[in-house]
Amino acid sequence: MLDRRSVLLAALIALSAAGSAESDERINAVATFSILGDLVRNVGGDRLEVTTLVGPNGDAHVYEPSPADARRLAAAKIVFMNGLGLEGFMPRLIKASGTRAVVVVATRGIMPRQMAHGEHDRAAIDPHAWQSVANAKIYVADIRDALATADPAGKAVYDANAAAYIARLDALESEVRDIVAKIPPERRRIISTHDAFGYFSQAYGLDFIAPQGVSTEAEVSARDVAKIISQVRKEKIPAVFLENVSDSRLVQRISEETGARIGGTLYSDALTDEKGEAPTYIDMVRHNIRTLSAALTS
């Protein structure tokens, strides 16, 4: 007679075998940018073949789709996008591709953050919702539900993958909050090169000041730079940070003029490749909070 441990082991082996048997018939999924692609892969596992349009270190704000992207959408069964005005290229790409794929907006259920001044769209909605780990869990739930609808046979796999990944996100959020608690409140002010950390700021109590507003396309005037330099000096902001999708020259100039240290590179809108510091969403958040802490507590 089998004991409970043996029964559980047998069930896990059967589930693994079922996933492997169907791995050669993977569902063709497309995600619009690298961060979303990583979330989709974590939920979809071996049942999906995931293609990302805007790859590592790419900027979805200024991305221009190619004919190859239209072919990718045409071949897809399901397409995941962020929404909230991030992917301005998607409506015309969907139309040009003639795709019959299900298009899923992965931010459904997230409370959008309004910008004081924005350039993504007239509503000034901040699209960078993934910068809050709590929001990332909503992305995961949206992805799980969409995959289960598109592929009912894989529902148990998607449910299990999503639950395991959300547990990892819970641990990540605890780590972020623990690190922030150790940063002196008067030092929780940061200059970054584009306004991508509003949700992070809202969730964890760090004050990000972004000289370029929302859009990475925006040029900063000499007057703007002078105001930023004055603000850094007046408020004694301890560090300025580079981003992997922005021009580094502005931050370097601010640092030279004010003496504020360059605290390192933050990853905002894109992951790195596998050899970089942030090849996954969890790596990205962990890198960012540790980089911030190192600069603000030293």
Please list the strands of the largest sheet in the order they lie side by side: 2-1-3-4
The third-level CATH topology of the largest domain is Rossmann fold
Segments where pLDDT lies below 50 for 5+ residues? 17-23, 118-122, 212-217
Q: How many β-strand stretches? A: 10
- Given helix and strand content, the structural type is alpha/beta
Radius of gyration: 21 Å
Helix share of residues?
40-55%
Strand proportion, as a percent range, falls in 5-15%
Number of helices: 10
Q: What is the typical, i.e. mean, pLDDT?
A: 86
Shape: globular
Q: Could you say what the CATH architecture of the largest domain is? A: 3-Layer(aba) Sandwich
- Given this structure, which CATH class of the largest domain is correct? Alpha Beta
Order of helices and strands: HEHEHEHEEEHHEHEHEHEH
Biggest β-sheet strands, sense, barrel: 4 strands, parallel
Tell me the CATH superfamily of the largest domain.
Nitrogenase molybdenum iron protein domain
Number of domains: 2
Distance between the termini: 61 Å
